[in-house]
Predict the 3D structure of the following.
Amino acid sequence: MNITEFKKVANRIKSLPTLPQVLYKIIETIEMPDSSASDVMNTIKNDPSTSVKILKVANSASYGYTREITDISKAIVVLGFDMIKSIALSVTVFKSFPKINNFTKFDRELFLVHSIASAEAAVLIADKIGYTKKDQAFLIGLIHDIGKVVLDYYFSPEYEKVIAKIRVENCLIRDAEIQILNFDHALIGGWLGEQWSFPESILASIKFHHNINEAPTEYTKHAIISHLADIVARTAKIGSGGDDNIPNISDIVLKKTDLFQESINKIVQQLLNKRENIETFFKVVS
């Protein structure tokens, strides 16, 4: 797609949601180690919808706390700051695009489960390849497919055709997008990330998770984490990315990391062991 064609696409997207301030604060903490975590904590405390979700997670059976937690500060102690950031990220990203009365048959609930599973998979992958920024890995996995939500929200008539094509031909959703729309969710997701001023590392993980070889060299690892997280979540069949197929693993993964199929199979099993927590997490944040 050339620039002129893409401008026409972008012009169809009106009233782009504003990224909530709490998410900016969290991303700032992730990207700048010397920034204040207390700033984020205060932002979360003052965000009612996020605070409610945090309390629900803290009081869920998965965390085994015997007394009801009613104070957000206590919830933060019980869950830990990493989990707090994960909840806030999940709530704020996906509430930016409320479900509309459309007819695309794109299952937003299964997609959110897939996104959370991908986020958990990304953390497991980061650990295996020696990438130390685990909270950034979580964000990478969580939003790698955000472009699909944009397409479902703003391009409903065309996306209905995409979903219909998948059902008839049993193809990958990306292949159907390219055939129907002439562009894919990675392109539109990267564009959204630019409008929301995401860091370059996060943008690369969105734009290039299907084409790792096109990622800038300094962000190859980010694209690899995103690429593999999607495949691991699909292999584990936790949620749905829009189709039931599993993309091929890029040769670059084998060239740039120490991961082989056996290692990836172990990551899939680790993710399957987290299925109950992922599904509980989804029920609370959705």
The chain has a mean pLDDT of 85. The chain is about 65% helix and 0% strand. The first helix runs from residue 3 to 11.
